[in-house]
Amino acid sequence: MQGLEKAGFSSGNSILVLGGAGGVGSLVVQLAKQVYGASKVAATASTGKLELLKSLGVDLAIDYTKENFEELPEKFDVVYDAVGQGDKAVKAVKEGGSVWS
Ligand SMILES: NC(=O)c1ccc[n+]([C@@H]2O[C@H](COP(=O)([O-])OP(=O)(O)OC[C@H]3O[C@@H](n4cnc5c(N)ncnc54)[C@H](OP(=O)(O)O)[C@@H]3O)[C@@H](O)[C@H]2O)c1
């Protein structure tokens, strides 16, 4: 929650959570969706955890074993990096948005 606050995340913003199926990421996904009222929540995980992401409220579940999230045309207001991929994370954020890691 502190990360979301420091990133300036607010209602109506979109977010990409790197490592959305982990201990940190799964909480960030749920906070963003259910407490902050995110407009869209995307998250990365491996193939076997995509259904878990969806059950947590993720709108766009990205399989990091098959897709490079930083190459997607869609950009996000906030990228929350719970994996340690800062170099790639900056490529997925909108102009004026922020990355938290
Ligand atoms: N837990 C805490 O209280 C806490 C507090 C402060 C900081 N941290 C830090 O936050 C980070 C995450 O901790 P955690 O407790 O959430 O770890 P965790 O529960 O072990 O989760 C790590 C997640 O990262 C995913 N992952 C691995 N490589 C990935 C990749 N390339 N792209 C996307 N996802 C990937 C794994 O998914 P797959 O199994 O699908 O690969 C797994 O779900 C660590 O650096 C930790 O030191 C944790």
Automatic annotation (TrEMBL):
Keywords: Oxidoreductase. The keyword Oxidoreductase applies. One of its GO terms (molecular function) is oxidoreductase activity, acting on the CH-CH group of donors, NAD or NADP as acceptor. Residues 23-99 form the Alcohol dehydrogenase-like C-terminal domain. The keyword Ribonucleoprotein does not apply. PANTHER family: NADPH-DEPENDENT ALKENAL/ONE OXIDOREDUCTASE, CHLOROPLASTIC, NADPH-DEPENDENT ALKENAL_ONE OXIDOREDUCTASE, CHLOROPLASTIC. Belongs to the zinc-containing alcohol dehydrogenase family. Quinone oxidoreductase subfamily. This is 2-methylene-furan-3-one reductase. It comes from Iris pallida (Sweet iris).
